[in-house]
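The authors assume throughout that readers already know how a fold can be written as discrete tokens. What matters is that the chain and its backbone geometry are given together, residue for residue. A single example would do more here than another paragraph of explanation. For illustration, here is how one protein appears when written out as sequence plus structure tokens.
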Amino acid sequence: MGIITAPHFVLIAIVGFFAVVWSLVSMGVIKTRDHSLHAEKNAFINNAVKTIEATYNYLEQIPSEHRDQARAHLHRGELNNALESARINHDVYHFFKNY
């Protein structure tokens, strides 16, 4: 029997595979995932969720007949316009309600 048996060949093949992959990555032939893009995507999604929540918070505090414009902006995907419209309607409603 020889010194190198079948399990040794498997181990050498696995080590060789990882060595080739590591060298290709270090040379830039194989690129890893761009994590900055995913971080930017998650930040954008979190900002959109906060904007939508703030918009609905304002919409809950005004009568239903004053909600249509902000809802139209939301349905078109205009999140910042929807928040601004809801904020304006909220401020105007409460201004005239108190006076």
Observations:
- Residues 69 and 84 are 10 Å apart (CA to CA).
- Residues 35-60 form the longest helix (26 residues).
- The two ends are 100 Å apart (CA to CA).
